[in-house]
Amino acid sequence: LCAERAEELRRAPVERIEPPAVPTDFGRTPGGTGTTQQAFGRSLLDLSRSAPEAAARVVTVSPDVSSSTNLGGWLNKVGVWSPAERVNWFADDAETILHWRENPAGQHVELGIAETNLVGLLGELGATWSRWGQPLLPIGIMYDPFVNRALEPWQFGIYAGGQSLLVGTPSGVTLAPEGGAHQSVTTPSLGLEQPGCTTWEPAFAQDTEWCVLAALALLGRPDGGSAYLRLSTRPVDQSLAAVPADPAARERRRRQAV
């Protein structure tokens, strides 16, 4: 009887599709003054231009902080997911910078203030490569102080084989003006101590780009894993990164970052 039930419950073998190639470097060097959070948003747009096949499998998920975490350009490009197309009541507003277009083809999922739901969805999206043979590149974005709210289900999702990139931004004390509850000084250890997860906290825009690309390249594959990225809204002079102009030296610098 047990053997019969086991056979009934056995899943048919899944033909797995290889995830699309993710570039390691976009080949440009940020200048001026910028933040790592800005660099993250720009990296998503650059990915859509440089590697559209990879960008087509990116799914971003956030609570209520899409515009305040530099996702505006990405949202304008890919739209917001909805089971059915919804009316954009602000479409005729010429002064609107963020275009909130909801339709079944959208690649961003907005969940409201529900960090636990967010990491639960990340775990499911990150497991499609093994369950259905269709690799996705899920990215969850939330204010870093609230990673603790979702810690346990995030860990369980990783243990279950869900591969995703969790971006905590702003992190550190860059949100401190909003109150003491918005400071995140303990989260670095969470990523460092989590098995199956690579953690980065880049200081410069160039390092952020490299880390985002390296994290996406880990997703949707048997030998892959998850990643946690802590970013900041603190402006930094990008010349301090001293990124070499020589291609070979630049590659060595990239490998040191990732």
Please provide a written account of the structure.
It contains ten helices and ten strands. By secondary structure, the chain is an alpha/beta fold. The chain has one domain: 3-Layer(aba) Sandwich (Rossmann fold), CATH 3.40.50.970. Strands 5-2-6-7-9-8 form a six-stranded parallel β-sheet, with helices on both faces. The chain has a two-stranded antiparallel ribbon with strand order 1-10. Strands 3-4 form a two-stranded parallel sheet. Strand 6, helix 7 and strand 7 form a beta-alpha-beta unit. Helix 2 packs across helix 9 (205-216) and helix 5 runs parallel beside helix 7 (151-159). The longest helix has 15 residues, at 36-50. It is globular and about 70 Å long. It starts with a helix and ends with a helix. The model has no long low-confidence stretch (mean pLDDT 90).
